[in-house]
Specification:
single chain; about 130 residues; mainly beta; 7-stranded mixed β-sheet; 4-stranded antiparallel β-sheet; about 45% strand
């Protein structure tokens, strides 16, 4: 079982930056593909970014490519999402997600169904 706790959300003006953190429990974090997703009111949950178990591979959604950066610190069991040049359309609840360690070598993925564990989310609001 993996427990995920997100932090770092808040209110920011357009053009600003935020860094989200996701602290994970469990001894298999270092072998776990991690992801960030977001869900705006009235919309489906959408893919933001994913990172492989070693941190050497990353994948981004088209709408955040070049503005957001995902990273991880396996020694701290934590994954980060650095968000720069924020836009009002980035406003959403951001969720951290983890694949089962059984799929460590399957790599990064955009699909919500590939992630077995989810955090409760952190609100990000970008004002214009």
């Amino acid at each position: 079982q993996v427990r995920l706790i997100e932090s770092g959300g808040g209110l920011v003006q357009a053009g600003g930056s935020l860094r989200l953190s996701c602290a994970a429990s469990g001894r298999t974090f270092g072998m776990t593909v991690m992801g960030w997703f977001r869900q705006a009111p009235g919309k489906e949950r959408s893919f933001v970014a994913s990172i492989g178990w070693s941190g050497s591979t990353t994948l981004y959604g088209d709408s955040v490519k070049g503005r957001f950066a995902i990273s991880r610190d396996n020694a701290k069991n934590t994954v980060y999402l650095q968000m720069n040049s924020l836009k009002p359309e980035d406003t959403a609840v951001y969720y951290c997600a983890a694949r089962s360690a059984c799929f460590a070598f399957a790599g990064t993925t955009r699909s919500t169904s590939d992630y077995a564990y989810w955090g409760q989310g952190t609100q990000v609001t970008v004002s214009s």
